[in-house]
Recover the amino acids of this structure.
């Protein structure tokens, strides 16, 4: 697929690459991961100063009005550094949901501070009972004296402890798995009836489980307008899918570069191991996988920006499936080329595999995407 970044995108990608090169080396990342928060507020501020936190948000509310294609080089750089900051959680997922579902008053109140990075959001949609089911929602919303209240639980909420507000999917009608009866709500992280149980994902990304017990919630738009809520949920999941596809390509590129550097520096029996023909063939196969996944990430971004287009959903599912398969395969190969050192906690290549493992589970793993593609045929 022929895809060229424009001058502005190239400049932004270059600025971000230089920033992450200075503040997000592997040992620096390990130090950040070891902190109680699990991410760096100084780095987050610098991302905001570059304008990245405003990039996909509406111009009317302090953003730049970018889409998934504009986020593509940004997510690749963040993935290359294995970044732990809440960009996906707050800007891509939370910001997209607020943009698609929020009424004008809510958007005007919150989006400027989200764009500046001062307010952080988290997307609370996944539930334990609906493994890999995009619309499985058991959390219920009810009115009590004119106030909407939520009851239920959400799992694998990225950067739950960093969020000031949660964007929560809940049911006003229907059964779990139904496309009708859904609504989106905004919940204050410090509200009574909200319990957050933090944990770390496999790649050290902070996450958490949320439990709601009669928690006060503000509807995003009309809570009885299930069609709008459904479109917002699908749009948010599409934006997230495209973003993690680009993130995965960045992590794959890091794994590939680490493997090539190792082949070109490690010596055995007086010669570089990269001179071994079998290992050179393996490296060539990795490069083919990387370039194919790069094209699939581009296709995913284009599909997310035009979700109503014919085959857009199939393109997203296909991209996520192929990147899931080839991404993990490439990282496994990179670890094998390193030998025993590749398995150690102190070496970066294994952390690339962890990132790809997490990404495969987000928004539907390989098997889930294969099922969706089969259902579309």
């Amino acid at each position: 697929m022929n895809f060229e970044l424009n001058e502005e995108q190239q400049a932004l990608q270059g600025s971000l690459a230089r920033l992450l090169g200075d503040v997000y080396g592997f040992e620096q990342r390990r130090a950040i991961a070891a902190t109680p928060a699990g991410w760096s507020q100084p780095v987050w501020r610098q991302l905001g100063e570059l304008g990245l936190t405003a990039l996909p948000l509406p111009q009317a509310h302090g953003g730049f009005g970018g889409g998934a294609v504009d986020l593509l080089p940004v997510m690749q750089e963040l993935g290359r550094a294995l970044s732990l900051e809440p960009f996906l959680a707050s800007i891509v997922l939370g910001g997209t949901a607020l943009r698609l579902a929020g009424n004008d008053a809510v958007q005007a109140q919150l989006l400027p501070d989200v764009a500046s990075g001062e307010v952080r959001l988290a997307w609370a949609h996944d539930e334990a009972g609906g493994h890999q089911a995009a619309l499985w929602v058991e959390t219920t919303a009810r009115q009590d004296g004119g106030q909407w209240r939520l009851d239920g639980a959400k799992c694998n909420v990225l950067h739950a402890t960093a969020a000031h507000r949660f964007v929560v999917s809940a049911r006003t009608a229907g059964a779990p798995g139904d496309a009708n009866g859904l609504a989106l709500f905004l919940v204050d992280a410090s509200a009574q009836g909200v319990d957050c149980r933090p944990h770390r994902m496999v790649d050290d990304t902070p996450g958490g489980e949320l439990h709601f017990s009669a928690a006060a919630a503000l509807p995003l738009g009309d809570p009885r307008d299930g069609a709008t809520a459904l479109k917002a949920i699908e749009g948010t999941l599409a934006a997230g899918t495209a973003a993690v596809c680009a993130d995965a390509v960045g992590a794959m590129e890091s794994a590939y570069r680490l493997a090539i550097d190792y082949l070109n520096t490690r010596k055995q029996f007086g010669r570089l191991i990269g001179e071994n023909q079998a290992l050179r063939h393996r490296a060539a196969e990795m490069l083919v996988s990387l370039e194919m996944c790069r094209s699939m990430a581009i296709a995913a971004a284009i599909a997310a920006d035009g979700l109503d287009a014919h085959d857009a959903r199939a393109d997203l599912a296909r991209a996520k499936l192929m990147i899931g398969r080839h991404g993990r395969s490439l990282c496994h190969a990179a670890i094998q080329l390193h030998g025993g050192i590749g398995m150690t906690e102190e070496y970066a290549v294994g952390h690339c595999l962890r990132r790809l493992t997490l990404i495969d589970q987000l928004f539907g793993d390989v098997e889930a995407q294969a099922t969706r593609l089969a259902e579309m045929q």
User: Anything to note?
Assistant: Residues 80 and 317 are 23 Å apart (CA to CA). Strands lie at 121-124, 140-144, 147-154, 165-171, 182-188, 194-200, 206-219, 267-268, 271-272. The radius of gyration is 21 Å. The chain has eleven helices and nine strands.
